[in-house]
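subagent[fold] <- orchestrator: predict structure for attached chain, return tokens only, no commentary.
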Amino acid sequence: MARRRIIAGNWKMNMTPSQAVALCAELKDLVVNDAVDVVYCVPAIDIVPVVEAVKGTNVHVGAENFYIEDKGAYTGEISAPMLKDAGVEYVIIGHSERREYFKEDDAFLNKKVKKALEAGITPILCCGESLEQREMGVTMDWIRFQIKSDLVGVTADQVKTIVIAYEPIWAIGTGKTATSDQAQEVCKGIRDCIAEMYDDATAAAVRIQYGGSMNAGNAKELLAKEDIDGGLIGGASLKAEFGSVVNA
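subagent[fold] -> orchestrator:
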């Protein structure tokens, strides 16, 4: 089956609200592509101005994080219903930076996946291995563990709607990129894992992104691979180069 392409930018902790609006204006005409879902995953403080800035365009807005409760005494946190009401359609879950710096484990991430789906927000579920794990030859063992743990109790129909982003940790922000064959091998492995957990139809429906330093120079080769349906873009999403990735 044909899967619709999805190119998402992860702005990380960058862009003040005024800078975010200016970036949306700069990118507006560069990211037009009717065949691709274009998503800006922005810091919480930028969500409202970015939602307003992209009205009438082909751009969807995503969040970078949220907490698993709907409301309550969780000072500094933001909930899935809050994101939904603000116009958010996607949310990144399980990024390596959240796993490492904020100690989010797979049991917690499983709760996040379920909460996002409950709120009607599409999870962009991240997985990936460290350089040490790749050199040990346990890449797929580790990623299969992440996927299986993060999707416990999630139905096949729900899984068909989510996006999975393969992000080799050793290639995030380093300028290093997995070769297109390495990226394809892991993305196919993720699809095979979904087929084992659910069925072939579910696996065929899931969109899988590559997210390790994809840029204008390598996007076309990576996106030509059968099991790579898009990209989760870091640094390149903050400049005009993002348009070249969208149209690769």
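orchestrator: received. Logging for downstream: The mean pLDDT is 96. Residues 5 and 36 are 5 Å apart (CA to CA).
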